[in-house]
Amino acid sequence: MSTIAEFSIPVTEFALHDTLERRPDMVFEVDRVVAHETSRVVPFVRATYGEFDGLTGILEDDASVAEVELLADVEGERFYRMVWTERAQIIGYMVAELGATVQEATASDGEWHLRVFFPERDGLSATNEYARESGCSLDVTRIYGVDELEEARHNLSEGQYEALTAGVERGYYDIPREINAQELADELDISHQALSERFRRATKNLVTDTLLVDQSDEDERN
User: Fold this and answer.
1) Residue 149: what are its φ and ψ, rounded to 5°?
2) Full-model pTM
3) Which band of pLDDT confidence, cut at 50, 70 and 90, is reported for residue 121?
4) Are 21 and 141 a contacting pair, CB within 8 Å?
5) Roughly what angle, to the nearest 10 degrees, separates helices 192-210 and 158-169?
6) Is the peptide bond before 176 cis (omega within 30 degrees of 0)?
7) Per-residue DSSP letters for the chain?
8) Does the pLDDT value for residue 147 go beyond 60?
9) 10 Å Cβ neighbour count for 157?
10) pLDDT higher than threshold 80 for residue 222
Protein backbone atom coordinates (compact mmCIF):
# COMPACT_ATOMS: atom_id res chain seq x y z
CA MET A 1 0.00 0.00 0.00
CA SER A 2 1.49 3.34 -1.07
CA THR A 3 1.88 6.07 1.54
CA ILE A 4 2.84 9.72 1.60
CA ALA A 5 4.24 11.06 4.86
CA GLU A 6 5.11 14.56 5.99
CA PHE A 7 7.68 14.96 8.75
CA SER A 8 10.31 17.30 10.11
CA ILE A 9 13.92 16.81 11.18
CA PRO A 10 15.98 19.35 13.18
CA VAL A 11 18.73 20.81 11.01
CA THR A 12 21.16 19.98 13.83
CA GLU A 13 20.58 16.29 13.02
CA PHE A 14 20.45 16.52 9.26
CA ALA A 15 21.95 18.66 6.50
CA LEU A 16 23.20 22.27 6.19
CA HIS A 17 23.17 23.01 9.93
CA ASP A 18 26.50 24.84 9.80
CA THR A 19 25.33 26.95 6.88
CA LEU A 20 22.01 27.86 8.49
CA GLU A 21 23.80 28.87 11.67
CA ARG A 22 25.76 31.42 9.65
CA ARG A 23 22.87 32.34 7.34
CA PRO A 24 19.77 31.94 9.58
CA ASP A 25 17.45 33.80 7.18
CA MET A 26 18.29 31.54 4.25
CA VAL A 27 15.72 29.05 2.94
CA PHE A 28 16.94 25.89 1.17
CA GLU A 29 14.62 23.86 -1.02
CA VAL A 30 15.55 20.52 -2.58
CA ASP A 31 14.33 20.26 -6.17
CA ARG A 32 15.30 16.61 -6.58
CA VAL A 33 17.45 13.95 -4.95
CA VAL A 34 19.69 11.31 -6.48
CA ALA A 35 20.92 8.54 -4.18
CA HIS A 36 22.56 5.40 -5.51
CA GLU A 37 23.62 4.34 -2.02
CA THR A 38 22.67 5.26 1.55
CA SER A 39 25.83 7.22 2.31
CA ARG A 40 26.05 9.21 -0.95
CA VAL A 41 23.20 11.65 -1.48
CA VAL A 42 23.24 14.12 -4.38
CA PRO A 43 20.54 16.79 -3.99
CA PHE A 44 19.88 19.72 -6.29
CA VAL A 45 19.19 22.59 -3.93
CA ARG A 46 17.67 26.03 -4.42
CA ALA A 47 18.70 28.79 -1.99
CA THR A 48 16.46 31.83 -1.48
CA TYR A 49 16.37 34.82 0.87
CA GLY A 50 19.20 35.77 3.20
CA GLU A 51 22.67 36.99 2.24
CA PHE A 52 24.18 35.38 -0.85
CA ASP A 53 27.65 36.92 -0.63
CA GLY A 54 30.10 34.19 0.41
CA LEU A 55 27.38 31.51 0.48
CA THR A 56 29.24 29.05 -1.73
CA GLY A 57 32.29 29.21 0.55
CA ILE A 58 30.10 28.67 3.60
CA LEU A 59 28.56 25.60 1.97
CA GLU A 60 32.02 24.26 1.17
CA ASP A 61 32.88 24.52 4.89
CA ASP A 62 29.65 22.83 6.00
CA ALA A 63 30.29 19.47 7.70
CA SER A 64 27.32 17.89 5.92
CA VAL A 65 28.52 18.89 2.44
CA ALA A 66 31.19 16.83 0.69
CA GLU A 67 30.92 18.63 -2.65
CA VAL A 68 29.11 21.73 -3.88
CA GLU A 69 28.74 23.20 -7.37
CA LEU A 70 26.97 26.45 -8.19
CA LEU A 71 24.76 25.77 -11.22
CA ALA A 72 22.86 29.06 -11.52
CA ASP A 73 22.96 32.49 -9.94
CA VAL A 74 19.93 34.65 -10.71
CA GLU A 75 18.31 37.51 -8.87
CA GLY A 76 16.85 36.31 -5.59
CA GLU A 77 18.08 32.73 -5.70
CA ARG A 78 20.96 30.36 -6.32
CA PHE A 79 20.82 26.78 -7.55
CA TYR A 80 23.39 24.21 -6.39
CA ARG A 81 24.31 20.61 -6.98
CA MET A 82 25.64 19.12 -3.74
CA VAL A 83 26.90 15.84 -2.38
CA TRP A 84 25.85 15.35 1.24
CA THR A 85 27.89 13.33 3.72
CA GLU A 86 26.68 10.51 5.96
CA ARG A 87 25.24 13.15 8.28
CA ALA A 88 22.26 13.19 5.90
CA GLN A 89 22.19 9.43 5.36
CA ILE A 90 18.53 9.00 6.33
CA ILE A 91 17.43 10.54 3.03
CA GLY A 92 19.79 8.20 1.19
CA TYR A 93 18.29 5.27 3.05
CA MET A 94 14.76 6.25 2.03
CA VAL A 95 15.62 6.76 -1.63
CA ALA A 96 18.23 4.06 -2.23
CA GLU A 97 16.99 1.30 0.07
CA LEU A 98 13.22 1.84 0.15
CA GLY A 99 12.60 3.26 -3.31
CA ALA A 100 10.99 6.38 -1.83
CA THR A 101 10.56 9.66 -3.69
CA VAL A 102 11.23 12.96 -1.94
CA GLN A 103 8.43 15.21 -3.17
CA GLU A 104 9.38 18.18 -1.01
CA ALA A 105 12.26 19.08 1.31
CA THR A 106 12.64 22.60 2.66
CA ALA A 107 14.91 23.92 5.39
CA SER A 108 14.07 27.09 7.32
CA ASP A 109 13.72 28.23 10.93
CA GLY A 110 15.90 25.41 12.25
CA GLU A 111 14.01 22.49 10.71
CA TRP A 112 13.83 20.44 7.56
CA HIS A 113 10.27 19.76 6.40
CA LEU A 114 9.88 16.79 4.07
CA ARG A 115 7.09 15.13 2.16
CA VAL A 116 8.04 11.63 0.99
CA PHE A 117 6.23 9.06 -1.13
CA PHE A 118 6.77 5.45 -0.01
CA PRO A 119 5.78 2.70 -2.49
CA GLU A 120 4.96 0.48 0.50
CA ARG A 121 3.49 1.61 3.82
CA ASP A 122 6.06 -0.32 5.82
CA GLY A 123 8.66 2.01 4.31
CA LEU A 124 7.62 4.68 6.82
CA SER A 125 7.97 2.23 9.71
CA ALA A 126 11.39 1.22 8.43
CA THR A 127 12.39 4.88 8.20
CA ASN A 128 11.26 5.52 11.77
CA GLU A 129 13.31 2.57 12.97
CA TYR A 130 16.33 3.70 10.98
CA ALA A 131 15.99 7.20 12.45
CA ARG A 132 15.94 5.86 16.01
CA GLU A 133 19.01 3.73 15.39
CA SER A 134 20.80 6.69 13.80
CA GLY A 135 19.91 9.12 16.59
CA CYS A 136 17.73 11.22 14.29
CA SER A 137 14.56 12.88 15.60
CA LEU A 138 11.78 12.26 13.10
CA ASP A 139 8.54 14.13 13.83
CA VAL A 140 5.78 12.74 11.60
CA THR A 141 3.03 15.34 11.20
CA ARG A 142 0.80 13.87 8.50
CA ILE A 143 0.25 10.55 6.74
CA TYR A 144 -1.84 10.02 3.62
CA GLY A 145 -3.36 6.56 3.23
CA VAL A 146 -4.07 5.01 -0.14
CA ASP A 147 -7.59 6.47 -0.14
CA GLU A 148 -6.16 9.96 0.29
CA LEU A 149 -3.50 9.87 -2.42
CA GLU A 150 -5.75 11.67 -4.88
CA GLU A 151 -6.30 14.45 -2.33
CA ALA A 152 -2.56 14.61 -1.75
CA ARG A 153 -2.14 15.50 -5.41
CA HIS A 154 -3.06 19.07 -4.43
CA ASN A 155 0.24 19.12 -2.51
CA LEU A 156 -0.84 21.46 0.27
CA SER A 157 1.03 20.74 3.45
CA GLU A 158 -0.55 21.52 6.80
CA GLY A 159 1.62 24.63 7.13
CA GLN A 160 0.71 25.87 3.65
CA TYR A 161 -2.99 25.32 4.30
CA GLU A 162 -2.74 27.17 7.62
CA ALA A 163 -0.97 30.12 5.99
CA LEU A 164 -3.48 30.42 3.14
CA THR A 165 -6.56 30.17 5.35
CA ALA A 166 -5.12 32.60 7.89
CA GLY A 167 -4.33 35.00 5.05
CA VAL A 168 -7.93 34.90 3.83
CA GLU A 169 -9.45 35.15 7.31
CA ARG A 170 -7.22 38.04 8.40
CA GLY A 171 -7.63 40.07 5.22
CA TYR A 172 -4.19 39.61 3.68
CA TYR A 173 -5.79 39.08 0.25
CA ASP A 174 -8.27 41.95 0.61
CA ILE A 175 -7.90 45.20 -1.36
CA PRO A 176 -6.65 47.13 0.48
CA ARG A 177 -4.97 44.61 2.78
CA GLU A 178 -6.07 44.52 6.39
CA ILE A 179 -2.82 42.88 7.52
CA ASN A 180 0.67 42.80 6.03
CA ALA A 181 2.93 39.78 5.62
CA GLN A 182 5.09 40.50 8.67
CA GLU A 183 2.03 40.88 10.93
CA LEU A 184 0.55 37.65 9.60
CA ALA A 185 3.86 35.84 10.08
CA ASP A 186 3.99 37.08 13.67
CA GLU A 187 0.49 35.73 14.32
CA LEU A 188 1.51 32.35 12.89
CA ASP A 189 4.75 32.45 14.92
CA ILE A 190 6.96 31.95 11.88
CA SER A 191 9.45 34.18 10.07
CA HIS A 192 8.52 36.45 7.19
CA GLN A 193 10.69 34.29 4.91
CA ALA A 194 8.93 31.09 5.98
CA LEU A 195 5.53 32.65 5.31
CA SER A 196 6.63 33.82 1.86
CA GLU A 197 7.92 30.32 1.10
CA ARG A 198 4.63 28.73 2.16
CA PHE A 199 2.63 31.16 0.05
CA ARG A 200 4.87 30.60 -2.97
CA ARG A 201 4.74 26.81 -2.84
CA ALA A 202 1.02 26.69 -2.01
CA THR A 203 0.14 29.04 -4.85
CA LYS A 204 2.21 27.04 -7.32
CA ASN A 205 0.61 23.76 -6.24
CA LEU A 206 -2.95 25.12 -6.33
CA VAL A 207 -2.50 26.76 -9.73
CA THR A 208 -0.86 23.63 -11.11
CA ASP A 209 -3.74 21.45 -9.95
CA THR A 210 -6.55 23.86 -10.82
CA LEU A 211 -5.27 24.63 -14.31
CA LEU A 212 -4.38 20.98 -14.93
CA VAL A 213 -0.77 21.76 -15.75
CA ASP A 214 1.03 18.52 -16.60
CA GLN A 215 3.84 18.01 -14.07
CA SER A 216 4.71 14.47 -15.05
CA ASP A 217 8.17 15.50 -16.22
CA GLU A 218 8.87 17.29 -12.95
CA ASP A 219 7.64 14.32 -10.93
CA GLU A 220 10.00 12.06 -12.85
CA ARG A 221 12.90 14.41 -12.09
CA ASN A 222 12.04 14.31 -8.37
Assistant:
1) -65, -35
2) 0.66
3) confident
4) no
5) 100
6) yes
7) --EEEEEEEEGGGSSSHHHHHHSTT-EEEEEEEEEEETTEEEEEEEEESS--TTHHHHHHH-TTEEEEEEEEEETTEEEEEEEE-GGGHHHHIIIIIH--EEEEEEEETTEEEEEEEESSTHHHHHHHHHHHHHT---EEEEEE-GGGHHHHTT---HHHHHHHHHHHHTTTTSSS-SS-HHHHHHHHTS-HHHHHHHHHHHHHHHHHHHTT---HHHHHH-
8) no
9) 21
10) no
Cα–Cα distance, 206 to 56 (Å, whole number): 33
Q: What is the mean pLDDT of residues 6-21?
A: 93
d(CA 9, CA 111): 6
- Res 18: pLDDT: 96
Q: How far apart are CA 35 and CA 128, in angstroms?
A: 19
Buried b (16+ CB within 10 A) or exposed e, 182-191: eebbeebebb
What does pLDDT average to over the chain?
Answer: 85
Q: Which of 52-66, 119-133, 183-197 has the highest mean predicted lDDT (pLDDT)? A: 52-66
